[in-house]
Amino acid sequence: xxxxxxxxxxxxxxxxIAAGITAEMFREAASIGGLEIQLxxxxxxxxxxxxxxxxxxxxTAFMGSLRCQTxxxxxxxxxxxxxxxxxxxxxxxxxxxxxxxxxxxxNPEALRKAARSLGAAKVPVxxxxxxxxxxxxxxxxxxxxxxxxxxxxxxxxAAKELAAMLNxxxxxxxxGAAALAARGDQASVLLxxxxxxx
Length: 198
What we know:
Blueprint: E1 2-6, H1 12-30, E2 38-43, E3 46-49, H2 56-65, H3 75-86, E4 94-98, H4 108-120, E5 125-130, H5 134-147, E6 150-154, H6 159-183, H7 186-197
Parallel strand pairs: 1-2, 1-4, 4-5, 5-6
Antiparallel strand pairs: 2-3
Helix pairs in contact: 1-2, 1-6, 3-4, 4-5, 6-7
């Protein structure tokens, strides 16, 4: 699973929440068969993917040490990176957490095209939106639908909501739709229901 995060300045509280939830994601996936994760993030003018790992400790230690910085969104770079990774290995899913799209840097049509490519490669994208921007919702939901993934929104600072969605996505990455269906919780039902519509 590729885990993409927006690490621009306003995102520090959510970044910190995600760091705390990451170990829980690994535990969730371990009960199904395990999870390899590649964290990638953008902040300022930087975009950085890390090596693949099955160590929750390594991922959470790094996330806990990183400070967010002002910058533009780079969602297209996350999607393009995921597409490149699919040429090297099987990628079970791409999970992205963010709250904004700046159209100058992330043209919605380019994002939709990248989502279609990931869908063709059988890599569903789970787009999790913090906040309630209707513009962001439209584009995030399109990315999810075009890739065969799912979209969900959570309230600012809502650790339990985000944890439920990330755990459900990790279950899918580790064990597919059957693992997601077996969970039966609200987040899993929401995501699976969207994926079955595609």
